[in-house]
Amino acid sequence: EIVLTQSPGTLSLSPGERVTLSCRASQSVSSYLAWYQQKPGQAPRLLIYDASNRATGIPARFSATGSGTDFTLTISSLEPEDFAVYYCQQRINWPLTFGGGTKVEIK
Amino acid sequence: EVHLVESGGGLVTPGGSLRLSCAASGFTFSSYSMNWVRQAPGKGLEWVSSISGDTNYIYYADSVKGRFTISRDNTKNSLYLQMNSLRAEDTAIYYCARPPAGSRHFDYWGQGTLVTVSS
Q1: A94 interfacial to chain B (CB closer than 8 Å)
Q2: How far apart are CA B90 and CA B63, in angstroms?
Q3: Do B104 and A55 touch (CB under 8 A)?
Q4: What is the predicted pLDDT for the residue at B103?
Q5: What is the rounded distance in angstroms from the CA atom of residue B97 to the CA atom of residue B92?
Q6: What letter would DSSP give residue B60?
Q7: B77 alpha carbon, distance to own chain's centre
């Protein structure tokens, strides 16, 4: 099973700040990594697929890079609606696995 | 517009059974694999099971293998999860999720249905 480790666990930031989230895989997932955003009481929303491709309707302030085992999600300037939990997910191998999540909270 | 609506959750005692359903609309159901993903209260996401559009390929997480059975009825545009021998650790919101054709990330999710396993 591929283990995805997200860091940090929690980030306390202010609107307008730039944020970078990390996801590290226990073995290579090539570029088969997705990022999701989840707000309280809601289902997850796909942000990024295949490491760097924004999903439909996702604002340009969200960007992502990486391949192999190290991936980052960047939000260039935090908007109030971006405070949420972010998860990464690999799709190269079964079982599909998610990272433990990074919570981005308001400072 | 794609819609996924789960149902069938509820309170069940340990060792009991429950069958979840997911009603799909807005796309050609039989052309897409479908998945169940769960989230325990206050915890992260856990993929549970996947079934291909033609039902030829089925996968399970080790944590549910032998206890849960995924199935689908393409004539009814519906996905199911039969859950047997339920344990307290199966308590979670269960989401139905659809990947894009040929992929395994999830671009559409239902609103989830809560399963609580408790005596």
Answers
A1: yes
A2: 9
A3: no
A4: 92
A5: 15
A6: E
A7: 14
> Distance (Å, rounded) from C-alpha A47 to C-alpha A41?
18
Kindly state the tokens that stand for B71.
Answer: 């199935």
Tokens read off for A103: 């919570």
Question: In angstroms, how far is CA A85 from the centroid of its own chain?
Answer: 9
Q: Where in chain B does DSSP place strands (E)?
A: 3-7, 10-12, 18-25, 34-39, 45-51, 58-60, 68-73, 78-83, 92-98, 108-109, 113-117
Select the residue from B2, B4, B104 to test the A interface by mutation, using most A Cβ atoms within 10 A: B104
pLDDT of residue B23: 98
Q: What is the pLDDT of residues B39-67, one digit of tens each?
A: 999 999 999 999 999 999 999 999 999 99
Q: If you ran DSSP here, which 8-state letter would residue B119 be given?
A: -
Which chain B residues are closer than 8 Å to A87 by Cβ? 44-45
Q: Which of A74, A97, A87 is nearest to A26 (CA)?
A: A97
CA dist A20 and B13 (Å) reads 43
Supply the pLDDT for residue A81: 96
User: Searching chain A, which residue's CA lies closest to the CA of residue B4?
Assistant: A43
**pLDDT tens figures, A38-51:** 999 999 999 999 99
Write the DSSP symbol of residue B88.
G
Taking only the tens place, the pLDDT of each residue in A81-103 is 999 999 999 999 999 999 999 99
Q: B69: which strand partners?
A: B82
